[in-house]
Amino acid sequence: MSSSLTVSIAFFLLGAFLIGVFGVRMTHLARELAHTTGLGEAMMGAFFIGGATSLSGIVTTVTAAVEGHPEMAVSNALGGIAAQTAFLAIADSVYRRANLEHAAASAENLMMCAFLIMLLAIPLVAFAVPEPSFLGIHPLSLVLVAAYAFGIRLLARTHAMPMWIPRRTSETRSEHKSSPAGRRKDSRRPWFSFLLCAAVVAVAGWLLTQAAIVIAAETELSEGLVGGVFTAVSTSLPELVIAVTAVRMKSLTLAVGDIIGGNGFDTLFIAMSDIAYRDGSIYAAITANELYWLAISLLMTGILLMGLLHRERHGIANIGLESVLILLLYAVSLVHMAT
Asked: Which of 1.10.10.10, 3.40.1110.10, 1.20.1420.30, 3.40.50.1970 is the CATH number of 3-169+186-338?
């Protein structure tokens, strides 16, 4: 084992440790802020946690695009979405009372799933017609950013005035609604602590990702496999830690919002990589591997949406059929990429 590989493994483990410690603390702070500010767990998970935990992924994706590695840049974004969706199935196994998709049913979660499918469809259109570009930027990259901003606004309106309410059962867990008096509590200190934890998690994620790149290079793996699996999974570890922690805290909306909201934010990586890539539209430089990850991400999100609508109470190994299918799809994808 070379010295650089040994050092990289040590840094990888250090990054994972920091993510575990500060990610758990950030989850507790996020739940507190969701209630004291009135933003709700879905918005905290989708926007604030999703954005904070994606910082390391942004750095990895943009760096790869700037350095002329479009395959790694795009596969890191799309592979991360697939990995994070699989992580939600893992979080499902932690919640023993019922299937997560049954217990966490809410208008916000359904909106986020539909929102994510829309965001993933935009790059698919761009991949089909990759040539149009202005200053090396595809017009649909700008559309993707605008669609994300519009979707966040819709999500906020859905939380404030939902037009659809799920049927309540004995296993359904509703988000705790704070009173106006509770919202007047000073939240400056929790916000400061949250941002501090987010900064540590972001730096730890970047450290872990850089270590993963060296490990992959030392083992002579392909660029598509490095981006779609190693860096994608590495930058997604914060989402796994936060989702599992939120489920253990019984903040189910926060757990689902962390994953689906983080996935929505990760679609912006593609737009950012297109802007950073200076050899034309990045959609013209990708391969079948990136299209494969996009198709798998769409399929997994569709399965998750069906699970949230069907709301199976109990399933195989106490996880829903949709979680089993998602894990199976991801396992098959890893095998496909490795061969």
From this structure: 1.20.1420.30
